[in-house]
Amino acid sequence: MTLSSEKQEKRESKKKTKPPVKKELPIYEESAGGLVFKQTKRGIVFAMIKDSYGKWTFPKGHVEAGEAIEEAAARETLEELGLEEIRLLESLGKITIWFRDRFVKKGKLIHKDISYFLFETPEDTFLIPHPEERVQKVAWVSKNKVLQMSFYKDMIPIIQRALEILK
């Protein structure tokens, strides 16, 4: 070994090595939700919830093991709106969201696919908020204001599809 190669070796051994960066893998979740409407004397209205972030949106929740996605959408929609009766009309499509969990998996990166369905409920139906479902408020919103009221912009194509079906 020559003197210069010894110096080179010492220099290299003195270099600080950075610990490998751990790439965080997201947790995948599948959810389903519903846009519920009813026909009134004043026209079509949609049921909306004020979520745990204080934003107006639509009910949704996790698909349980062995549960069909349509069943999950109906169950979550009934629970979060306090409804007893809804009728499935058709699929409205799917959105994908990414976020950091605040409740169960605190701080973890979540990748969630949410399938939405259109449901109808009888005209005399009342909404009942359920705080245990992290729902702050519920309201019937006219079809003319539903796009403006919905906070989450990724819901626009889902809402537009529902409005198109109901024309």
Automatic annotation (TrEMBL):
Biased region (Basic and acidic residues) positions are: 1-12
Q: Does the keyword Hydrolase apply?
A: yes
Q: Where in the numbering of this chain does the Nudix hydrolase domain appear?
A: 27-167
Q: Name one GO biological process term.
A: AMP biosynthetic process
Give a GO molecular function annotation for the protein.
bis(5'-nucleosyl)-tetraphosphatase (asymmetrical) activity
Pfam families for this protein: NUDIX
Q: Entry's InterPro entries? A: Nudix_hydrolase (IPR020476), NUDIX_hydrolase-like_dom_sf (IPR015797), NUDIX_hydrolase_CS (IPR020084), NUDIX_hydrolase_dom (IPR000086), Nudix_hydrolase_domain (IPR051325)
Provide the family line. Answer: Belongs to the Nudix hydrolase family.
- Which protein are we looking at? Nudix hydrolase domain-containing protein
